[in-house]
Amino acid sequence: MSEPRIAETTGLTKDAGWELGVRKTVPAPVPVVWAFLMGEGLQVWLGDVDALPTEKGAAYETRDGVRGTIRSFTEGYRVRLSWQPLDWPHDTTLQVTVKEAAGGTTIGFHHDRLADRDERKMMLGYWKSVATAIAGRFEG
Predict the structure, then answer these.
(1) 19-45 pLDDT tens trace
(2) Cβ(96)–Cβ(45) below 8 Å
């Protein structure tokens, strides 16, 4: 039996299933970017929701059917939550971080516990488009 090709297993971890990471640096300071992500920017990355709870274990649900619970929340730095669209039979874990970078703030999306390579590919495209949309709010 031959070893699987690298491309076939890219994003597959031993413990967290399929995962992905997307980062984008925007020309704004961390507090401004964090305030956007937790305020009007929720619509861009999470969906149609008024606010995101910050207490560990608190549940949330968007009007478009994404639901989950807060796993951890560190003001101004990171939110980790379970993330499950209405039509998915399983939940996943999403982490959103902000970090000071040369020229601004790097926003990171890390998504794991994805079901398979196809789900990873779909969500990689989704998070890349989200990152681009967020960056567009801070550029020009």
Answers:
(1) 999 999 999 999 999 999 999 999 999
(2) yes
Asked whether 107 and 97 are in contact (CB, 8 A), the reply is yes
Domain segments of the chain: what residues?
Answer: 29-138
**CATH of the structural domain 29-138, one choice from 3.40.50.300, 3.30.530.20, 1.10.260.40, 3.40.50.2300:** 3.30.530.20
Give the sheet arrangement for strand 92-101, strand by strand: 18-26, 104-114, 92-101, 78-83, 67-74, 59-61
Give the integer Cα–Cα distance in Å for 81 and 102: 28
**HSE-CB of 117 using CA atoms within 13 angstroms:** 5
What is the reported pTM? 0.89
- Token representation of residue 31: 């507090």
**CB atoms inside a 10 Å sphere around CB 32:** 14
Instruction: Return the sign of the alpha-carbon dihedral for residues 106, 136, 63, 116.
Output: negative
Task: Indicate the length of the chain as a whole number.
Answer: 140
